[in-house]
Amino acid sequence: MFFKRSKKPLINSSSTSNPLLFYLNKMLKFIKLSPSRIKDLLLIVSLSISLFLVFLHPQTPLPLAVTAASRSPTRRHHLLFSIASSAGSFPRRSSYIRLWYTPRDTRAIAFLDQRLSSSVGPNLPPVVVSGDTRSFPYTFKNGLRSAIRVARVVKEAVDRNEKGIRWFVFGDDDTVFVVDNLVKVLSKYDHDKWYYVGSNSESYEQNLKYSFDMAFGGGGFAISYSLGKVLARVLDSCLM
After folding, report:
1. What are the structural domain ranges in the chain?
2. Which PANTHER family does the protein's record reference (predicted)?
3. Which of 30, 166, 173, 233 is least surrounded, with the fewest CB atoms within 10 Å of its CB?
């Protein structure tokens, strides 16, 4: 139902300082509108003004709280492979290491219990002798004392302070890594957070004897740089 148009304008046009109100008043003089239509029209105008202001003055995006180095993709050289071995087994199992290790773009270190009697070939990673563990107590009758040395490979690898490392990868001297696949998987995770990546053993007996929640070294496991730094500080106290 329409109402009779008043002789007075619906909007005061005496204040011509606002062009929008002035032209709106002019338009309403020639259009018969119900109160509800007037309300709808005002809402549309208000929405149009709001959208105009939003697009006219877009918000400046917040700066990302990450460095350029963190944004760069994870590559092979960001991984440090730490191989737990011994002077007796390393020469026999070096052929496994040659399957995945390339001196040009793979960073790896072999941790042995003592020095080798002969030099290492050019296609093998450098070797270091693990630290002395005789001061650590060991009372487990069904195990090997060398487990202490192998466990401390984590600390010794981190304490080397190698530059540009994002992930520490650990395995045995007969573990065969598919390096590019491993890089692809680890690149999905933030190395600045605590990550422990691996899998339990394919042997049910091994899982039952040790732990279903432990990543076995035979298949290899990886820890992020930030987690490695924390573990290196407390590992010896866990072994005492």
Report:
1. 19-56, 78-239
2. FRINGE-RELATED (PTHR10811)
3. 30
Residue 231 and residue 223 in contact, taking contact as beta carbons nearer than 8 Å: yes
Fold of domain 78-239: Spore Coat Polysaccharide Biosynthesis Protein SpsA; Chain A (3.90.550)
Rg of the chain in Å (alpha carbons)? 35
The answer for residues whose C-beta is within 8 angstroms of residue 98's C-beta and 6 or more apart is 123, 124
Residue type, 196: Y
Q: In what order do the strands lie in the sheet with 79-84?
A: 127-129, 107-112, 79-84, 167-172, 221-224, 196-197
Interatomic CA distance for residues 152 and 197, integer angstroms: 18
- Sorted by sequence, the CB contacts under 8 Å of residue 221 that are 6+ apart come out as 169, 170, 171, 196, 197, 198, 199, 215
Query: For 23-48, what is each residue's pLDDT tens digit?
Result: 556 555 545 556 666 666 667 767 67
* Tokens read off for 196: 């422990």
